[in-house]
Structure formats: structure tokens, C-alpha cells
Amino acid sequence: MDERSWFSSWSGGKDSALALWAAQSEGLNVTHLLNMQNSTGRQSRSHGLPPELLRRQAASLGLKLVTAQTSWAGYEAAFQRALRKLSAAGVGGGVFGDIDIAAHRQWVERACETAGLEARLPLWMAERRTLMQRFVDAGFRAVVCTVRLDRLDETWLGREVDTAFIDELQARPHVDLCGEQGEYHSFVYDGPIFQRPVDFQIKARQCRQGYGFLSYQIEE
Fold first, then answer.
1. How close are the terminal C-alpha atoms of the chain, in Å?
2. Nearest 5 degrees, angle CA 68-CA 70-CA 72?
3. What is the pTM of this model?
4. Contact (CB, 8 A) for 95 and 7
5. CATH code for 128-216?
6. If one looks up domain 5-120 in CATH, what number appears?
């Protein structure tokens, strides 16, 4: 039995949640979530989630949230620093939600190896529809939180990730069903690994620099 503690590379979206669930189902002792944020720390990279929603996810998951702030240019160095801190705290490996982008797998494995950590990718090479249906059938709940406007318009923002969503997206050949080319990202607010649903309220839909984002009403 693997007695090491692990961290989950946590975007707040469906792939990281599904990978975390798979790792826990395999008996891995996941203790930390690692989330990379923008330089101001006001939102997460790619998904645009405010820190309070990430904290609520972590609290419902019963895991410790670790964050690192960075620009895109400084991302690799900041990620490496965060891994070294986790390793120094006794964490032995990381769980990642990558599916089939070989260059990114090589990147995370190299980063983990440099920090003395093992990398696990439980979703690797799984069939897209199978992954999406597994997510829905397991009882996970998520909404679309960002879109690439050259692939999906702003009406997709806030859409629930369910079977109807999967069917409609699969009919669009220019869109990866799992959003692996950044076509969309999601925010997971409930599921089998959550102790309770994450409370959130959508405030508005915003478009800038070719992307659409949700903004949220956060009550302290």
C-alpha cells in the first residue's frame, strides 16, 4: 500500500476533479490541492476562478489548498518552486488530469522528477466520450466557466456539464469534447468527492481578448 501523501494539480475543473476521484479510488492519500493563479492572485490561471471559490472547493473536499501566483512567462519557475515546497512538506507525488497531450505529460513528469516527486496521470489516453460520461454518471456537477470565442460563443458560459451538453458538443467537429485545446473550461461544484455542494452565484458573463469568462458574486 502506498503510504505517501499526494497533491492534486487542481484547476477547479472537471478533469482535475475526475483525476482526483480516480486517484482516491486507487487508494492514494491525496492531501493537498495545488492551484496556479495570476500575478495578482485574484483569479486562477486559465479557468479564471476567484480564490474564494477555490477555498470553498478545498473545504468541501477536505483538502489543503496551496496556491502560487505567477505570470505566464514565469509559470514554470513558479510551478517548480511550489513542487519543491510540497516535497519539503513530505508530499511524495502529484496527480494530474492530462488526457493525451504528450508534450504536457513530459513537462509535468520532468517538473515532478526535478522536485523528487512522482507524477500520476489517471486519465491518460482514455476515450473522450467515456471520460465525459463517467464524470456525469458519477454525479459530478459543473458549469462552463470560460470559452474560446473562436470555438464557442458566450452563450455556452454557465452551461451545465450534463449528457445533453456532451451530445451537443460532440456534434461540433471543431471542438474537442474535453476542451483539451482550451475550447472551454469548467468549474466543478459538487460530486462524489465533495462533502457538500460548493455555494456560488454567477454575476455576469464577460468577453475580452478572444475569451469569454464568468464572473461571480462572492459574499464574504
1. 41
2. 135
3. 0.95
4. yes
5. 3.90.1490.10
6. 3.40.50.620
182 alpha carbon, distance to own chain's centre: 12
- Answer whether residue 219 shows pLDDT above 80: no
Q: How does DSSP classify residue 199?
A: P
Residue 2: per-residue pLDDT: 64
Tell me the β-bridge partners of 113: none
212: its cell numbers: 469569454
The confidence band for 3, taking pLDDT boundaries of 50, 70 and 90, is confident
For the stretch 22-52, pLDDT in tens is: 999 999 999 999 999 999 999 998 899 999 9
Structure-block grid coordinates of residue 128 = 473522450
CB atoms within 10 A of CB 199: 11
Cα distances (angstroms) measured from residue 201 to each of 2, 11, 44: 39, 19, 17
